[in-house]
Structures are given as structure tokens and as C-alpha cells.
Write a structure and sequence with these properties.
Elements (H helix, E strand, L loop, with lengths): L56 H5 L11 H21 L6 H8 L3 H7 L3 H22 L7 H18 L1 H13 L5 H19 L6 H22 L5 H17 L2 H4 L3
Helix pairs in contact: 2-3, 2-5, 2-7, 3-4, 5-7, 5-8, 6-8, 6-10, 7-9, 9-10
């Protein structure tokens, strides 16, 4: 793996693209009632998931939506272990290395418990991307882009994201493949990734109340960023080419600015 983001000399952890910032509490993905779970164990030798998955697991997992009640502290800690294990496995071997049984063992939860938080590998990796974006957002708030215009700031922000992805190519590929494979059942989780990306772009723009045309420009920028990420990961585009594409599409921000539209 290139980049060695897990180098302890720099205070980073493996599997974290945008580190050096505490993780914000996440309450938007998968919630469970706070009750004792007989399948939730702390002994890694008892967490191999050899028991058959209960029939109700899939149903309960479907409750993990943004309008669900917040996780308890214990549940949140468990969820964070799962996401960390997912990111570590993906960093080491990409999409194929993220096996639900391995994630359960690494995070020390039973396989049935894991499926109640994340019904599938795709759900898990999309949630991992949302978690990575949250870390990036926190980093950007501590050290915002310095461009003179909104377009320059957004382009700088997205290129910082690309440089981070360069350091963890296996993790990046796993997350993007999950987004590509996501079907309708993963729509709420994919929407969270989109909303987080939108929030990052709007913060870079310095806008709190964007108009319809500006929001449309943001959507086009998101589509271009995602497409450029896919072509780069597949080896069909260089970082230099990606930079040109990102800077080009970000010009839409200035073109849709209210003061620009009111000029004769």
C-alpha cells in the first residue's frame, strides 16, 4: 500500500484518509434499542459468527435511517469499532478484503450484531466513506482553503481530498466501488454521502443560503468529482488531468453567483 497513512510517527491511524481530528459523534446511520444483546460478545474467540443469522436481523437493520433515534454511547462505540475495522481491512486489500466475518472478528462483535448495524458489505463501505468525509470536513474547518474566490476554494478543497485518497488507494477504491454497486436499498446511506459532500463544498464556498442555480452547480461539481475519482482509480486519468477537470467545473460557482447574474 502506498503512502503509509498508518505511520505512527505522524500520529495517524491506518485506514483514515483525513486524520488528526477527533471523530464527530455520528447519529445518522443505523440505530438499535439499548438492550442486552446475547450475540454481542467481547471475546474475539466467540465472535466468529458461526451461528446462523436470525431471521429478524435484516428487518431490524432496515431501521438504520436518518430519522431513527440516536445511538447510545455503547452502541456508538461499537459502531465506531466496526467502521474502523472496515477501513483497516479496505486499506490493506481493497474491496475484496472487506468480508463481513472478518469485520466482525476485528471489531469484536458477533456477525449477527454486525448485520443489524450494516445489512451488507455495500452498506458498510458506503457508511465508511461517509465517516471519512466527516473527518475531512472537520479538518477543513480547522484549516480552511485559502483561495480568493469561491471557485478557487472549492477546487482546492476537492484536490486536497484527492491527495488524501492518493495515500490510501485501496481504501478509496473500495469505497467508490461500494457507491457504484449500491442499489435502491442503500439510497439513504448514499444520500448521506451526497449531503456530506454538499456541506463540504458549501462551506468552501462560504454560503449558508445558496440559491437554486448555485445548488445545481454544486450537484454538477459533485458528479464531476465522482466521475474523475473513478477514472483516476481505474488508471485512465492522471492527477494533473483531474485537477484541470475540477478547476474547470468549479467555474460554474462564479457563473451562478447572484452578483454575476444581475450584471447587464
Amino acid at each position: 500500500m502506498r503512502g503509509g497513512s498508518g505511520d505512527s510517527r505522524h500520529g495517524t491511524r491506518p485506514g483514515m484518509l483525513f486524520d488528526r481530528i477527533p471523530s464527530p459523534t455520528v447519529t445518522t446511520v443505523t440505530t438499535l434499542t439499548d438492550r442486552h444483546d446475547p450475540h454481542d460478545c467481547h471475546d474475539p474467540h466467540d465472535c466468529h459468527g458461526t451461528r446462523p443469522m436470525p431471521a429478524e436481523v435484516k428487518v431490524e437493520a432496515g431501521a438504520g435511517r436518518p430519522d431513527s433515534p440516536p445511538l447510545t454511547e455503547r452502541q456508538e462505540a461499537r459502531r465506531r469499532r466496526i467502521l474502523h475495522a472496515s477501513a483497516q481491512l479496505a486499506s490493506r486489500g481493497g474491496f475484496d478484503a472487506v468480508q463481513m466475518r472478518e469485520v466482525a472478528e476485528s471489531s469484536q462483535v458477533a456477525l449477527g450484531t454486525l448485520y443489524r448495524y450494516f445489512p451488507s458489505k455495500i452498506h458498510l463501505l458506503v457508511a465508511t466513506m461517509q465517516d471519512q468525509l466527516e473527518h475531512m470536513h472537520g479538518t477543513l474547518r480547522k484549516k480552511p482553503p485559502s483561495g480568493a474566490t469561491a471557485a478557487e476554494r472549492v477546487a482546492e478543497t476537492l484536490m486536497r481530498a484527492f491527495r488524501a485518497l492518493q495515500r490510501e488507494p485501496h481504501l478509496a477504491d473500495a469505497m467508490v466501488r461500494a457507491l457504484t454497486f449500491a442499489d435502491r436499498s442503500v439510497s439513504p446511506e448514499v444520500d448521506q454521502v451526497s449531503h456530506q459532500t454538499t456541506a463540504i463544498i458549501l462551506d468552501a464556498m462560504g454560503l449558508e443560503n445558496p440559491g437554486p442555480e448555485q445548488l445545481s452547480a454544486v450537484r454538477v461539481i459533485e458528479h464531476t468529482w465522482h466521475s474523475a475519482l473513478i477514472t483516476w482509480l481505474s488508471g485512465r486519468a492522471s492527477i494533473a488531468q483531474v485537477k484541470i477537470d475540477i478547476e474547470t467545473v468549479c467555474r460554474l460557482i462564479d457563473l451562478t453567483a447572484p452578483d454575476r447574474r444581475t450584471q447587464p
